[in-house]
Amino acid sequence: MSNAEYIARKYLKKDTGKKRKKSKSSDFVEIQDEDVAGWRNEDELAGYSEEATLLQDQPTIVKDENIKDLDEIAIVQKAQEATVPTTSRWKPVGSTEGSQGREPVNESMENGPGYGLVTGKQVSEKARRQRERENQEMFAMTDEEVRKSKETVYRDATGRRIDITLARQEARKKLAEQELEKRRQKENQLGEVQVRQQEEYLEELERQKNVPLSRYEDDPEYNQELKERVRWNDPAAAFLTKRNTAATKAYQGYAPPNRFNIRPGHRWDGIIRSNGFENRWFQRQNERKAREHEAQMWAVEDM
């Protein structure tokens, strides 16, 4: 007796546990149609319905052992009652079912060169059709559409489109408002004398509308106007007398100018009591006019 047999006999025990009984397996009958291509005799298919024909696309499993000896038609009918028929994915050649929602493939090379090799004739034909279509669209456009297509598109720094007509209207409106504001400021700076002179000037313009165009030396109104005109180098001003028509007497000596062009009264003692604003105002006006003149001369220097 070997050592292994002695150890197994003395120290090892056999597994006496109960074994689990195997469940009795049920027999199934599986029928597969060997005629995959579908080339069968029409007489054999005379008793088949459309649903029974669709069931032949997949293998049929029959769980009942009593129908093993039945023919194939009975098996198919029994399986049809036990199972729900499934739609086959095989479609007959030329069938339109399932292709209704699919768009036809564009083979005219309208959207691209297509697949595979492309001949030069096909490319030329595509270019010719495209030119004809563009010409038809161009001739079909109205004058308004042609004018809009030729308009220049203006955009700002952010890329937004600018309506040039609306922008010009806003610019003209803004310019008119600025001119009105300047005129209002200028009117506010005028005094009573300037306002009265302006009104007299406007009245004179209205009166001159009715004056005849031909005026001669014997026109009394014109002669009176020339006599009343004051000239600084008139030699007869020393001995000619003029009736004073002014409402108030003015100072006859030198007087500094002011922005309202009003001379002081005859009782002025000649002492300037201004704070210097009038002098600075005239100085700024002269500087502004000098800069404008210099800019204009510089602009036309190369002309």
TrEMBL record:
Example GO BP: mRNA splicing, via spliceosome
Organism: Schizosaccharomyces cryophilus (strain OY26 / ATCC MYA-4695 / CBS 11777 / NBRC 106824 / NRRL Y48691)
GO cellular component, one term: U2-type spliceosomal complex
Record's protein name: Complexed with Cdc5 protein Cwf26
Region of interest called Disordered, as start-end residue ranges on this chain: 14-44, 82-148
Extent of Basic and acidic residues compositional bias: 123-136
Compositional bias annotation for Basic residues: 14-23
PANTHER family in the cross-refs: BUD13 HOMOLOG
Family: Belongs to the CWC26 family.
InterPro entries per UniProt: Bud13, CWC26_splicing_factor
A family per Pfam: Bud13
Any GO MF annotation of the entry: RNA binding
Superkingdom: Eukaryota
